[in-house]
Amino acid sequence: MTAAILCGITCWLFFGNIESFQFSFLNLNLTTLKPTITVLSQLCFYLYALIMFVGTSVQKIKWQFLIIFIPLWTFFVYAPLANLIWSSNGFLYRLGALDFSGGLVVHLTAGLTSLILSFFMRNTKPPLPRDSPLLNYVATLFILTGWLGFNLAPAGAFQNHGPLIVINTLTAAIGAVVGWTSGSRLGLSLDSSTLYNGIICGLVTSTALVAYVSTPSMLIVTLISGLICHYVTDLLADSTYFYDPVDSFGINGIGGLVGTLGLILFATPTVNKAGATGLLSGGLKFAEVEGLTLIVTILITLLGTLVCLGLIKIIKILILSRRKEAAF
Questions:
Q1: Can you give the residue ranges of every domain in the chain?
Q2: What is the pTM of this model?
Q3: What would be the CATH architecture of the domain defined by 2-327?
Q4: Alpha helices in 188-283 (DSSP H)
Q5: pLDDT tens digits along 109-156
Q6: Closest Cα to residue 259, out of 226, 225, 285?
Q7: Which of 103, 159, 175, 190 has its CA 20 to 30 A from that of 226?
Q8: How many CB atoms are closer than 10 A to CB 116?
């Protein structure tokens, strides 16, 4: 994991941020704080996505795979989507696409990448260490606290909406815990992981819409997300076709998807004039743009990840052929 993080930081600073936002950290004006915070915030978003799909496969791959896959994935998947959706020059951004703190760019990409990796690495399931309730509670506290910064980081020009973002973030955690727990009561025992997974599910779901919907709308979306994410994670846990020990697809992928669909339905300019008008308020145009953005995100992630794996396979074949030639 350390090798993956170091590789990711290097990739982002040297070409990821340039490809995404046409800005190099080498040109940072260190006398002002805002550009530095922007670069570091985007680095945090990127590293979250990276850590989630690495967590899916870290037990079954070597660091050599990661130092090839991560630069390729950054180049073919993450940076293009960050440019399209978040950059002021991005095509989807100019159409009016919204993704406040990464429901699409960060979480859906990480979840779909994890799904592909979990499929290709499904043959054996190494035993996982038992959960520690104390560590789960401590981790939950740190994650919940840190996520407030995660969701507040992109506030930028509309910082007056900070209270809305904080309230919606906490509401999202509560709503998803209730939804996740409701799913657990259908036959599974409750434990600390139920609370932990429910909170993470809510936080992930909130990222796409946290600054663009009312608090009651956020509660509805995350209640539904908790139920759906719980069902999907259970489904994948019993599957022989996928192995995802960190539930990255079930929580990040599905949470990002449900959050984006919630944004399409419930977005309203009454809570944020920089937002949009969702379907329930008669905003058909925004629904079309956001639906297109969702489809583009899914296609680029799936195709880009498969291209990365294909290139790695070609590189491996070339290396093996060179070794065979050297042996003669």
A1: 2-327
A2: 0.90
A3: Orthogonal Bundle (1.10)
A4: 192-206, 215-237, 254-266
A5: 999 999 999 888 765 555 555 567 777 788 888 888 888 888 887 766
A6: 225
A7: 159
A8: 20
